Amino acid sequence: TGVQTCALPIYYRQYGIKDYIIVDDTFNDHNEKLESLLSMVERLSFKPVFWAYHRLDLICTRPETLDLLYRIGVRAMFFGIETLNLPTGRTIGKGFDRQRQIEMMQTMKQRYPDVSQHGSFIVGLPYESVDSIQRTFDQIMSGDIPLDSWIFNAMRIHQPEDNAFNSEITLTPEKFGYENLGLADPRAGVIRWRNEHLDYDRAVELAQDYMAQSRDNPRHRVSGHTALHISTMGLDFDLIRNTPFGQMNWHNIRTMVKPNFEKEYRSKLAMIVSTNKY
Hints:
Elements (H helix, E strand, L loop, with lengths): L1 H5 L1 H8 L3 E4 L8 H11 L7 E6 L1 H6 L3 H8 L1 E9 L3 H6 L6 H14 L4 E8 L6 H13 L6 E6 L13 H4 L7 E7 L4 E5 L5 H15 L9 H8 L5 H5 L8 H25 L4
Parallel strand pairs: 1-2, 2-3, 3-4, 4-5
Antiparallel strand pairs: 6-7
Helix pairs in contact: 3-5
């Protein structure tokens, strides 16, 4: 991290780059790392903006990191929450009190309203009923869970031989109550499963229905990750991430903004190559 962050001033001076997507799978895993980054950021002549993956349960247990993250420049967070059902969460290594997680998201929204919170959820995890999933979705839609953007996906169980990194559920689905009904997607090696609450097809249907409903909810905004990508094409990050997803002019992005950016980018690359400035 130290080697990479040392390049920030160079990128800013030469290219004006100040917005970054951090691919660390858990950015907030250690306080020492955050404190070191903050020390570096405070010495910069500009204020960087970061998007990163975070563990919400770690913020709950170490609330002092909230201020650290904000001062570093984190303005968009991805939470792989997956479930707020405690027994299910414990099964997948993410078991933490439902209400405490919700209260932390509410605290973050009150204290740092300019930080985008994105939540990821899975329909069909072990031991979670449809009522439990529906409860989470309803709280998100009403604003009780104050996420700025969210996504629901169906539980996908891959055949072990078709997956590079296998979870315990993938290796022994029957141990977690899944019955293998054959392949749902042969190209991806995804099985069609059934458990006590759902089957794969119904989980896909529910996830798609949730996202279709979400598109009409003005609270469901463009995710921080997507907003940061689009902002590199010359648009304002704050404006994009505060735009409701359903009101975003995606056609203009695809047909005008992106092609113009690519044309300008190729021109700059050609100039760098022609003058040997690389």
